[in-house]
Amino acid sequence: SSTGRAVPQDVAAHGNGGAFVAYDTGSSSRGAVFAVTNSGGVSWSYSDKGSAVSHLNAIVSTKDGGCIAAGAWSQPGAIGQWTTRLSLAGKVMWSQRPPIADGVSWQSIAASGEVFIVAGSRLDKGLSSPVVAQIGGDGASHWLRANTSINGTINRHGIRVQPDGGLLLLGTSKQGTLQRALAQRANRWGYSD
User: Fold this and answer.
1) Other residues' Cβ atoms within 10 Å of the Cβ of residue 108
2) Residue 47: what pLDDT?
3) Which of 64, 67, 127, 157 has the CA that lies 20 to 30 A from 92?
4) What is the mean pLDDT of the chain?
5) Cα–Cα distance measured from residue 133 to residue 58, given in angstroms and rounded to the nearest whole number
6) pLDDT of residue 3
């Protein structure tokens, strides 16, 4: 199947032996999820239908065989986060998009049972700070934490759920022209240990 100018951003295995592939289609279009069968065919695709340009940055499988896609939407002068849960058949189970621009762009997502951790950055007054949130399997936001003392972001694939439920966050921080690696441990509620 052709994806035009789409660039694969993330992949997650699904229950039928295939994979969910998250594509970003550039600055003037929509992100898309493709459900790829174990023989390489596409069984369905989903594209965000919001009014703004959407970027799909991360995807994770759910226990019921579906997936959650995460990213950001943008329009002139504004950016905001979005997450959507899709069933194994490609049906939207829920979609979360704040009604106002919150400056958050999700870059990474990880599963811990029926709880999902999303991480990325929040842009405010030209500075980017790492942000992490917990979302329930029903789409309810449990908490959101931003580290405004750091000018940086959590990288794509930059979150790992630890066996004790804590989080390992990986990213980059920037001070002037110096860019540094960022590694932070947080407890299951997103606070630094």
Assistant:
1) 25
2) 85
3) 157
4) 81
5) 14
6) 46
76-129 pLDDT, tens per residue?
778 888 899 999 999 999 988 876 677 888 888 988 888 898 888 887 767 778
From CA 185, how far away is CA 36, in angstroms rounded? 34
Strands 152-161 and 167-175: antiparallel
- pLDDT at position 77: 77
Give CA–CA dist 6/134, Å, rounded. 28
Q: Answer yes or no: are the C-beta atoms of 46 and 89 closer than 8 Å.
A: no
The two structure tokens encoding residue 107: 């870059």
Query: For residue 41, how many C-alpha atoms fall within 13 Å in the half-sphere facing its CB?
Result: 3
Tokens standing for residue 176? 């002037």
Q: Is 76 helix (H, G, I), strand (E, B) or coil?
A: coil
Q: Which 3 state secondary structure label does DSSP give 190?
A: coil
- Backbone CA torsion sign across 150, 153, 155, 161: positive
Q: Tell me the C-alpha distance between 166 and 188, whole Å.
A: 4
Rounded CA-CA distance 53/103 in Å is: 14
pLDDT (tens digit, 9 = 90+) per residue, 35-76? 999 998 999 999 876 666 778 889 999 998 999 999 888 877
Contacts of 72 (CB under 8 A, 6+ apart): 54, 55, 57, 79, 80, 81, 82, 104, 105, 106, 120
